[in-house]
Amino acid sequence: MKKPANHASAWPRHLFLIGTSEPMPKAGKASKDSLEAMGSKAWHLLRMARLGLPVPPALVLGTHYTREPAESLLPLFGGGLTAFEAVCGQQLGDAHAPLIVSVRSGAPVSMPGMMETLLNVGLCDATLPGLLRQSGNPRMVWDAYRRLIASYAVVVGGLAAQPFEAERLLACAGADERTLDYAQLRTLCRRYLELYQSLAGQPFPQDPREQLAAAVQAVYGSWFSPKADSYRKLHGIDEGLGTAVIVQRMVFGNTGHRSGAGVGFTRDPSSGEPTLWVDFLANAQGEDVVSGQRNAHGHATLAQTLPQAWEALQQVARTLEHELGDMQDFEFTVQDGHLYLLQTRSGKRTPRAAARIALDLYEAGQIERQTARERTAHLKAKDLVRQQLAPSAGDSAADAAAPLELARASSACSGIASGEIALDPERAIERTRAGVPVILVRQDAQTEDIEALQRVQGLLTQRGARTAHAAVVARQLGKVCLVGCEGLRIDAQRQTVAFGPHEFAVGQTLTLDGNQGIVYAGALAVVDVPDTPLQRRLQALRSNA
Question: Where are the domains of the chain?
């Protein structure tokens, strides 16, 4: 691969290049200053690249430009993009071998799903044939193009997502969109282009540089979105930190059965158990998993369909924990059997998991005792308790009153939660303000619901993965969370939910068992079971011995 020329004398101080053996200035030291300047996501990408892990090249526009995003465009197009293209061996907008990129946010403090991402930037009518020749995969190319048009319309154009979603559902005719062939996707893509022009009053931009400039500014702008603002206020994050923007060479998880996208935790973030915890979706892109709009599969599917990638992922998990000294939450893509890493960060976890992970890492000699103490200093004995359903007495009367199991779902956070049904965040907030416990029931796990999530007892969704951004946020807030409940049907017009023959109106009560992944009718009794062994281990850590 061609190396970039040495730009040390003229290289902008707020630009960083990842993926070259000749790092640009300011990307050289993994210091606190560089973390704040380039954001946590890029800082960890740089660390992973230097560990020899498979990270696609990236150009990082620093947090400096958050309040004046237009100021980033001169350094971006005045030398940064040229150096990045040289590292990638491709050019943005090249009709024969086009560079296709993702544009992502990356603040100095992790804010899962609170800002915007655009994938497949650089695709247009002129570059599509070139990507087709490169990949030999017409289905992937048309799928990537239609995804770009729809996401660009929403994130950059400020258009509603619903018209594009309606067209997608019409094209799918009830089937999984991954079953659409290239001809169907081409037709859908052309319909998207027509829809974009109709709704935006102008054609979809066909200049890849125009796409990139607008995407960069939109991602910076998402730092000030209402959901990001709510998240910062909830967690005491300084608005002045800003976000970086990462322009990264695309890797495609939607190239067929030997590809896919996923999110993993190096340990179970609910219990702290030292097992790899993965959600994976074959023939998909990363947003399919983290958006909360798709159900995903566990590691067994990945291990069965792509054993080499699974083996590589296990080694990556060990490397990340060893080098970074904490449980990691990472995103990955598999393209034609090859594993690529797109992100790692310290994973959000429950209080009980926080205790076990810190203790396990300390006892294994991976972190110092003082570090383990600092990570558990906020925990109290009541935090190290498992909630369970109260056992029945076992007599005939109790058996007759056995709880009614309604459905099963994937558990993103353990515990037990009971509350009345709310189908929208506005009602959930109103009822919780009145002192009523609430279960928020939604079709998708959405980060836009963050204000309601912090107030309710639990979240139940029809679609979504355990590692969707909203599920991660719910777990961090300690909320019981069940996702991907395929037996759930929501009727927004009638304000009801149904599980098979059983129908419930808004205001009626459900219980979520996050330990077993079960939805029950009514409010059920709960008992707290202290995790005595874990409490003793924590006490020993805190002792002066």
Answer: 1-122+207-250, 125-204, 351-387+530-542, 391-524
Q: What is the DSSP string of 354-403?
A: HHHHHHHHHHTTSS-HHHHHHHHTT--GGGSEEEEEPPP--SHHHHHT--
CATH fold of the domain at 391-524: Glucose Oxidase; domain 1 (3.50.30)
The token pair that represents 416 in the structure block? 């037990």
The full DSSP string for 108-132 is: SS--TTSS-EEEEET--TTTHHHHH
Q: How far apart are CA 366 and CA 170, in angstroms?
A: 52
Nearest to 223 by CA among 76, 75, 65: 65
Please tell me the distance from the alpha carbon of residue 80 to that of residue 15, in angstroms, as a whole number. 7
Residue 545, pLDDT score:
55
| Partners of 265 in beta bridges | 277, 329
- Residue numbers in the chain where pLDDT is lower than 50: 1-9, 21-30, 393-398
- Has domain 125-204 been given CATH number 1.20.80.30? yes
Mapping DSSP to helix (H, G, I), strand (E, B) and coil, where does residue 202 land? coil
Same-fold call for 1-122+207-250 versus 391-524: no
Give the model's pLDDT for residue 27.
43
* Cβ–Cβ under 8 Å, residues 80 and 213: no
| 243 contacts 72 by C-beta, under 8 angstroms | no
Residue 12, pLDDT score: 86
Instruction: Please state which of the four CATH numbers 3.40.50.300, 3.30.1490.20, 3.30.1490.100, 3.40.50.720 is assigned to the domain occupying 1-122+207-250.
Output: 3.30.1490.20
Q: Would you state the pLDDT for residue 401? A: 65
- Please give the model's pTM, rounded to 2 decimal places: 0.88
